[in-house]
Amino acid sequence: MDLHKSKTILLTSILLAYLSLNACNEQETPPPDTSTSYPSPIIEVETSPTPTQTQTTPKQRNVKVFFPKQPQSNQDFRYVEPVVRSTTSRAVATFAIEQLIIGPTKAETKIGFTEALQLKGSSNCGKDFTLSIAAETATLKFCRAIPSPGVGYDARATSAIESTLKQFSTIKSVVILNKEGNCFGDLSGENFCRK
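^ GerMN domain-containing protein, sequence as received from the core. Prediction below:
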């Protein structure tokens, strides 16, 4: 055997041994994630902790709910004052509107607070309202009828809703829609709140 051939065999053997040993020591690494990630919408879901999770007490939050108050709201239909409600819900804006619909407590009524709105009839969405927040605009669509005795009532309700929702830093403007999807209190039929 010539010298060149034996060197080639030796080098090939060393290379194969090296590759074999190297392959045994390598850990398989997953390929890098090249997919594009998009933020998913926030969905509020309550879940029970698994047995291995520790259960923490939900954080108590104070939320303002604005109601018309007598006698000031008799002269200024947009006059509202806040009362404080507490919740452990993370959906604080939804909670605040629920409390607005429930109305003032007996103690609050005794000192002049009055209801901001009443809902009547059946729901067309399975609940009293839907609330969505996008681009600093809250869109509140009622799913039950809101009987309106006049513009003063509409102004009180609008002021209470807007003041209640605008307390949250994520909300700068409010669109209020009735059961039919039209602007609440817009007697023109032009749906100016959507423009």
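The first helix runs from residue 3 to 25.
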